[in-house]
Amino acid sequence: MSEIKEKLYNLCVAYVQSRMKASEQAIAEAQQSANDDTKSSAGDKYETGREMAQQETNRNLAQLNEANKLMVALNQIGTKSNSQKAEAGSLVITNNGNFYLSISAGVLQLDGQHYFAVSPASPIGLKMKGISAGDEFILNGKNYLIQSIS
């Protein structure tokens, strides 16, 4: 199981890195756009274009900051721990899906299986935190039976 957890961890790292790269590229493009904007006879157009580029840069800086927070959260997760209770870094197998408690990265596909990368602070992550194999919980009217935790 630790091999699966390590692969899922690496998929999460790749997800965050791609978000960071996309944000950095968008920031560079917005800055280039602002630099290319030249003063025209309609002075307001120049200022509006620069302001729009600045807003785009700020939006992408915020996304980059969020991606950095996700990377920090990932760096705090171990792939070798084998706790009997669900915690950050745990792989939780239920009757309604496989969950990797790490960051909110959506559905990860690995070896033909679907795994949901969820944050321990998400509603389902909070329900899972501290439970053991054989435990059950209900979320949104759906019953989850914990089959195994690694």
Automatic annotation (TrEMBL):
Residues 27-56 are annotated as: Disordered. Residues 36-50 have a biased composition (Basic and acidic residues). This is 3-oxoacyl-ACP synthase. It comes from Mucilaginibacter glaciei. The lineage of its organism: Bacteria, Pseudomonadati, Bacteroidota, Sphingobacteriia, Sphingobacteriales.
